[in-house]
TrEMBL record:
This is Heme chaperone HemW. It comes from Allocoprobacillus halotolerans. Probably acts as a heme chaperone, transferring heme to an unknown acceptor. Binds one molecule of heme per monomer, possibly covalently. Binds 1 [4Fe-4S] cluster. The cluster is coordinated with 3 cysteines and an exchangeable S-adenosyl-L-methionine. It is found in: Cytoplasm. Belongs to the anaerobic coproporphyrinogen-III oxidase family. HemW subfamily. NCBIfam families: hemN_rel (TIGR00539). PANTHER family: COPROPORPHYRINIGEN III OXIDASE (PTHR13932), RADICAL S-ADENOSYL METHIONINE DOMAIN-CONTAINING PROTEIN 1, MITOCHONDRIAL (PTHR13932:SF5). Its main location: cytoplasm. The gene is hemW.
Amino acid sequence: MSSLYVHIPFCKHICSYCDFCKVFYHEKWAWQYLEALAYEIQQKDLKQDYQTIYIGGGTPTTLTYEQLQYLFDLLKPFAYQVQEYSIEINPETMDHEKLALCLQNGVNRLSIGVQTFQDDLLKKIGRVHTSSQAKAFIQEAQNMDFQDINIDLMYGLPDQTLEDVYQDMETLNQLNVGHVSYYSLILEDHTILKNINYQPLDDEEDAKWYEIIRQQIQQYGYKQYEVSNFYRFKPSLHNLVYWHYQDYDGIGVSAHSLKNGHRLENTKSLTRYLKHDFLASDISLTLQDQLFEKIMMGLRLNQGLSIEEMNQLYRIDFLNQYQKVITKYQQMGFLEIVDGYLKTTFSGINYLNNILIDFLDE
C-alpha cells in the first residue's frame, strides 16, 4: 500500500484542546502556502500510483472553492490509482458546492470533526458548529453518495457526563455513520485547556469510560480494529498504513514521511515553509528503532503483530527475544497469541503503555 499525507494548516477558529500545527486562515497566506506546496511536490520524488491520499490539518476545508480546486489539481497526477481519497472537514466550513467539488475530484472518504453532539459541550471546547449543523451535513453527504464517512468523537471533555457519551453514541447509531474515531481528551502543552489548568479524567476514570464506550459501540454493530477506531463497513486503509508501519510520503508544513528506514520531518514554521525551506530533519532509524516502532504500532491493532512477519523482517526469533515480557503479560491476562499473532486482550488494551515500556526496556 502506497500512501500520501497532505497537511493544510489553516483554521478559522482554534479549539481549546488542539495542539496540531495550525494557523488562522488568511486568503493571501493560503495562496502562498499552496504555491509552496507545489514547490515541495516538484522537489520530491513522489510516486505516481498512491493507493491512499489523506488531506488533513488544520481544517483543509477552510480553503475557498478555488483554492480547493487548485489543491486537487496539484494532487491529480498522484491520484490515478487511488482507492481511498480522504479529506478532513469541519461542518461549518463546508457547503454543497465544496462537497460536490470533493466528489468531482475523486474524494471518496470524509473525516468529519464532530467531537460531540452536545451543543453546550461544543461551546466549551471552542467548536463553532452546532449539533444540528453536524447532523445535517452528515445526512447531506450521505445523500450525495458519500458512503465512507468517519466522524471524530471525544470523551473526557469539560463538564461532560457519561449520559452525554451515551447520547453521542445513540446519535452516531441513528446516523448510520460507517466509521468512528473515539478519542480521550489529552491535554497537550500550549493548548487553551492546559493553560487554564483544566483537569481531565484520571487514569481510572478514563479506563472506565473507555470500556463503556467500547462495549456500547460494539453493540451498535461497530467492530474495533485499533485502540481508538471502529468501523461498520470498512476500516481506514490510510491509517492502516501507519499502524502496519509501512512507508508513506508526507507533504506540507509539519508533515512526516517514513521512507527506507528514515523519518523525514518537515518544518513546523509557516514562515520557513513559505520560503521553500521545508525539510527540518532527516532521522536515520536504527534497526532497533524500527523494531520497537513496529511493535508499538502493531499492538495498537486488535489483530496484533504477526510473529512470522516480525521474524522475517528483523531476522530474529521474536518470541524468544521478548519471552520475558510476553510471558509476564500473558500470565496477567493482558497479552495473548492467537493464530500466529501477538495481541492485547480486551482488558490488556488498557495497559498498552505499560506493556510497551517493558518491550522498550527489553
